[in-house]
Amino acid sequence: MTKTKVLVVMGVSGTGKTTVGKLLSEQLGYPFFDGDDFHPEENINKMASGKPLNDDDRKGWLLKLNQLALQQHNVGAVITCSALKKAYRSLLRAGMGSDMQFIYLNGSFDLVKSRLENRKDHFMPIALLKTQFEALEPPSKAIAVSIAQQPDQIVQEVLKQLK
Ligand SMILES: Nc1ncnc2c1ncn2[C@@H]1O[C@H](COP(=O)(O)OP(=O)(O)OP(=O)(O)O)[C@@H](O)[C@H]1O
Ligand SMILES: O=C(O)[C@H](O)[C@@H](O)[C@H](O)[C@H](O)CO
């Protein structure tokens, strides 16, 4: 990959953003940032109580992640963020020109559900997965990769498309 990029690994909860993002960060030598760490506590509490976030809940969070991307503009970064809607991705990429690249982890409802059922100790209730898919507007200009393969295979596919 020639130019430094800020990569945003996106997709519904449970698609493997954190898993794949950390591996990508190691391969590229870019710092890793988990987007969930930038949620205000009330957002985490809202999701943990079984209520989905709405556009207003997400706006401040997305603006914080855009600020992070701008700070990392010249050094690169791998950031995980569900980035479910087109409007969210526009907020995230503001000021980044062509230096932000979305990596879309794509999987069926049943596959993602099975992944969440096997995951322990996470605040996100499986019951919210349906609302994640309902909100999802798949990106048209992202590097899209199927999650129906091992994490390292996903990473190799992403690296190939980044070149
Ligand atoms: N390619 C894969 N194959 C099998 N299991 C996977 C794969 N990717 C991730 N997992 C597992 O699926 C679960 C969800 O992964 P992860 O937490 O990385 O998803 P996420 O998109 O970051 O979720 P969230 O948005 O809720 O934080 C974890 O238990 C993880 O170990
Ligand atoms: O956009 C959203 O509804 C939220 O950001 C969720 O996607 C969480 O961030 C995460 O995916 C769950 O852990």
Automatic annotation (TrEMBL):
<comment type="similarity">
    <text>Belongs to the gluconokinase GntK/GntV family.</text>
</comment>
<dbReference type="InterPro" id="IPR006001">
    <property type="entry name" value="Therm_gnt_kin"/>
</dbReference>
<keyword id="KW-0418">Kinase</keyword>
<dbReference type="InterPro" id="IPR031322">
    <property type="entry name" value="Shikimate/glucono_kinase"/>
</dbReference>
<keyword id="KW-0067">ATP-binding</keyword>
<comment type="pathway">
    <text>Carbohydrate acid metabolism.</text>
</comment>
<dbReference type="InterPro" id="IPR027417">
    <property type="entry name" value="P-loop_NTPase"/>
</dbReference>
<keyword id="KW-0311">Gluconate utilization</keyword>
<protein>
    <recommendedName>
        <fullName>Gluconokinase</fullName>
        <ecNumber>2.7.1.12</ecNumber>
    </recommendedName>
</protein>
<dbReference type="GO" id="GO:0005737">
    <property type="term" value="C:cytoplasm"/>
</dbReference>
<dbReference type="GO" id="GO:0019521">
    <property type="term" value="P:D-gluconate metabolic process"/>
</dbReference>
<keyword id="KW-0547">Nucleotide-binding</keyword>
<dbReference type="GO" id="GO:0005524">
    <property type="term" value="F:ATP binding"/>
</dbReference>
<dbReference type="GO" id="GO:0046316">
    <property type="term" value="F:gluconokinase activity"/>
</dbReference>
<dbReference type="Pfam" id="PF01202">
    <property type="entry name" value="SKI"/>
</dbReference>
<keyword id="KW-0808">Transferase</keyword>
